[in-house]
């Protein structure tokens, strides 16, 4: 079993590439392990506390109230979705029962008149509940996670021998998302094979997450095929490699397979859990293909999908089978 690396990225938070030691540590963890935790980031403990407090207030609201900000369509990942709305393992073309989680998503707050925000699903407006202070803390959190992702992206690029600023520029009109994942208690036993979140890899570049230290938590699959519990380290942020880095590096960096398991019924069936994840996605038009600096003599994929197309296809797959959006249920 591997020990999950913990990397202090404070030296990489400013400038174009940051400290070379951070770059080596980040790129090494991405290539050899696929996941790690970071300290020295932009996401303060006070902000996480405020974010969790506001978000628990939202999930405690009656279902009809939460439904007023429900996700409008499978490819418009904004707002609330109930338990059973996703079966995330379908994104790997594998069947499983629906995930035992609720969620709430936002994207970037795009200003009026910005021409690149063209009304596509990836630029859909955020849906805000009528809770005092909720929007403000979520916007602050989005910015802090986005800044941390940029520091990691620059460090990762430097470790690969790619221009850190050119890599960061791929995110200057990002379609990233900040998501709350609420895993309710389980008074009824789950179905066979049903988890809080089924086995999957994430669809973007890096995923950054924080969570409450409660039973029924995140596990990652290491290179030896063993499931590893991810500990909640106070002040640290979990980082996982997503599909885009795998493609950009020509599969040098494997996307992290992970899942969220159920709490043990004999000791913690009544334990709920809250996590927040930032899914870093670049500008919508960025190709999902090997980075030119790493391609060598390879010609690339002539019909490579864009980041927006890749994201849309994955979300349609995971939310359209057995969900409220499934056409067969209409």
Automatic annotation (TrEMBL):
A GO term, aspect molecular function: dioxygenase activity
Protein name: Isopenicillin N synthase-like dioxygenase
Keywords from the named record: Antibiotic biosynthesis, Dioxygenase, Iron, Metal-binding, Oxidoreductase
Residue ranges of every copy of the Fe2OG dioxygenase domain listed in the record: 174-282
Keyword Iron among UniProt keywords: yes
Any Gene Ontology biological process: antibiotic biosynthetic process
The keyword Iron is annotated on this UniProt entry: yes
Organism: Quadrisphaera granulorum
Family per similarity comment: Belongs to the iron/ascorbate-dependent oxidoreductase family.
Pathway note: Antibiotic biosynthesis
A Pfam family: 2OG-FeII_Oxy
């Amino acid at each position: 079993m591997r020990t999950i690396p913990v990397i202090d990225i404070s030296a990489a938070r400013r400038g174009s590439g940051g400290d070379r030691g951070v770059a080596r540590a980040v790129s090494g963890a991405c290539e050899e392990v696929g996941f790690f935790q970071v300290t020295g980031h932009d996401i303060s403990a006070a902000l996480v506390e405020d974010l969790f407090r506001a978000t628990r207030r939202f999930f405690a609201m009656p279902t009809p109230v939460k439904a007023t900000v429900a996700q409008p369509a499978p490819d418009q990942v904004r707002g609330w979705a109930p338990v059973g709305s996703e079966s995330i393992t379908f994104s790997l073309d594998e069947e499983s029962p629906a995930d035992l989680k609720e969620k709430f998503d936002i994207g970037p707050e795009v200003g009026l008149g910005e021409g690149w925000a063209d009304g596509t699903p990836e630029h859909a407006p955020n849906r805000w509940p009528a809770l005092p202070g909720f929007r403000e803390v979520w916007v602050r959190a989005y910015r802090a996670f986005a800044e941390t992702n940029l520091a990691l992206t620059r460090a990762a690029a430097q470790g690969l021998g790619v221009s850190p600023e050119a890599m960061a520029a791929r995110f200057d009109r990002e379609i990233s998302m900040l998501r709350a994942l609420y895993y309710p208690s389980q008074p009824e036993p789950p179905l066979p094979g049903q988890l809080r979140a089924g086995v999957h890899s994430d669809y973007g570049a890096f995923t950054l997450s924080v969570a409450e230290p409660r039973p029924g938590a995140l596990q990652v699959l290491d290179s030896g095929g063993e499931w590893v519990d991810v500990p909640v380290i106070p002040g640290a942020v979990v980082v996982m490699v997503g599909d885009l880095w795998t493609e950009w590096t020509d599969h040098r960096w494997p996307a992290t397979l992970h899942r969220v398991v159920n709490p043990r019924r004999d000791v913690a069936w009544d334990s709920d859990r809250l996590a927040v994840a930032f899914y870093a996605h670049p500008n919508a038009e960025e190709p999902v293909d090997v980075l030119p600096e790493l391609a060598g003599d390879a010609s690339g994929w002539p019909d490579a999908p864009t980041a927006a197309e890749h994201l849309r296809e994955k979300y349609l797959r995971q939310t359209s089978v057995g969900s409220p959006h499934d056409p067969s249920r209409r």
